[in-house]
Design brief:
The structure is a single chain. The chain is of the alpha+beta class and about 260 residues long. The chain has one domain. The protein is built from seven helices and ten strands. It has a seven-stranded mixed beta sheet, sandwiched between helices. A three-stranded antiparallel beta sheet has the order 2-10-9. It is globular.
Length: about 260
């Protein structure tokens, strides 16, 4: 399904879609994607980093290829991209070691039941409120950086148009914090999907796809261990969530008109 222009409806309608999409992603992960011992759970966003995440390196847990293979994870290979079905060139970047609806947002955390249910990855869907005020945009950036610093892999899906505070997506702000220059993004692609892989050296590898209205969403990697991931079915789950919206708003978004709500 083609990506819609979500600036055409107000924040409440996108918040409703946001919850539907989170629910569908969560179901796909638990029903058919995540191998044992991993599971996904939708959680409220409290404005700060998830409080019970623990750095895996601090526990002395070193990922092994044979264990990852037995869990059904895909291994990252230099000759093959981790992103599948991308509508634009995939940018891979290495980063060195280090409105009321924003308060109602949800994220998905992926936990490992064999490691005391510790969080190993987080999936975030960006809302307009995350980008509309300095407080919310800084809080979102700080939370993302805190997760990465704790060794938690991260996926950020942003289908909202840019704002004056966040014109080019949150990857640019994350790069600024790491002292890195963000890669040049293709013109007329204001939306973004980014997957952050925390490596054993505490460095971070980012896989970024620039998006625009009309694109089919790619399958983004969700890293559960360094170099090992599962693919997130963004397009399928997006379509399922969109189908559950009230017909009035589906018609509006498909036609490209503006809501009178």
């Amino acid at each position: 399904m083609a990506l819609h222009d979500w600036s055409l409806v107000d924040s409440g309608i996108f918040h409703n879609f946001h919850l539907l999409w989170i629910g569908r992603l969560n179901a796909h992960l638990n029903e058919r994607i995540l191998p044992e011992p991993y599971y996904a759970i939708a959680e409220p966003v409290l404005g700060e980093a998830v409080p019970d995440v623990i750095t895996l390196q601090e526990q002395g847990i070193a990922p092994r290829d044979d264990v990852a293979a037995s869990q059904g994870l895909v291994r990252e290979e230099p000759s093959q991209g981790a992103v599948a079905l991308a509508p634009a060139p995939v940018l891979v970047q290495e980063l060195g070691p280090p409105d009321p609806y924003a308060l109602l947002a949800r994220l998905i955390s992926i936990r490992d039941s064999l490691r005391d249910d510790r969080v190993v990855a987080v999936i975030e869907l960006v809302s307009h409120a995350n980008k509309a005020s300095r407080v919310h945009s800084e809080r979102f950036t700080e939370k993302s950086l805190s997760l990465l610093a704790k060794g938690i892999h991260l996926v950020i899906i942003d289908v909202q148009p840019g704002t004056a505070l966040v014109p080019n997506g949150f990857h640019e702000k994350i790069c600024e914090a790491y002292g890195a220059q963000p890669p040049a993004r293709p013109e007329n692609r204001p939306c973004q999907a980014a997957s952050y892989e925390v490596l054993g050296t505490s460095a971070v590898r980012a896989h970024i796809v620039a998006l625009r209205t009309g694109d089919k969403l790619p399958e983004m990697p969700v890293f559960l261990l360094p170099h090992h991931f599962v693919r997130l079915p963004l397009d399928t789950s997006y379509q399922e969530a969109f189908t559950s919206l009230p017909r009035k708003f589906r018609v509006l978004l498909e036609a490209g008109g503006r809501s009178s709500r």
